[in-house]
What does this fold into?
Amino acid sequence: MNSVLITGATSGIGKALVEIYAKNGFKVLAAGRDSTKLANLKEIYPSIQTLNFDVTQLQQTLAAADEVNNIDQLILNAGNCEYMETVTPFDSALFERVIRTNLLSVGYCLEAFLPKLTRSGQIGIVSSSVTYLAFTQSQAYGASKAGLNYLAKSLSVDLANHEIGVSLIQPGFVETPLTDKNTFEMPGKVTAEFAARTIFNGMRAKKHSIKFPTIFINILRLLSILPFRLWRKIAISLVNK
It folds into this structure.
């Protein structure tokens, strides 16, 4: 039986991933920091194994790895989004918190769980489509996800000789408890189930890049071709509306 470890498994994309992997016969290791939500998840899917730890805490993450044998897939999905309402003054505490949750935690998980991956295993790193363009108030979130992009691509090179693949996952807007807090329009928003299905198929095909939804991503890619000075003018005009 193939196995997968999913971080951030108790809500949003992570919870939808637990469902699709369990329904497709995988041994699922669902990781999260909320023991109550993990227990509820276990009630819904009795076959899964739960791991209760905080990915932002290295020692907790290393201890959780002691409960894990070999795994075929590792999906590093846990993350958070906080917007910077102002950059004057700059909120360095918020910046540090977001970088730790979204970027440093992935390093902790790699230290803990990379040795558990089987040969020909696959890592999925959930980044974001926000990295295509510079958006207002996204200094912390965008920087953390841009770091994940580089990390995933670099890992893909260095893990090739170990026959371990890396999938960089860049969703657009997905209907989750995090995006439910947004007060702005979210074009192309998809369900968590759609996101999970796309990720599942992409991981199974060992794709280097998993991006969705296609139309929204293509629009961002086209806009990213613009000289930055032009995009900057567009972004400033949108802020000043």
About this structure: The chain has eight helices and nine strands. The chain has one domain: 3-239. Residues 92-113 form the longest helix (22 residues).
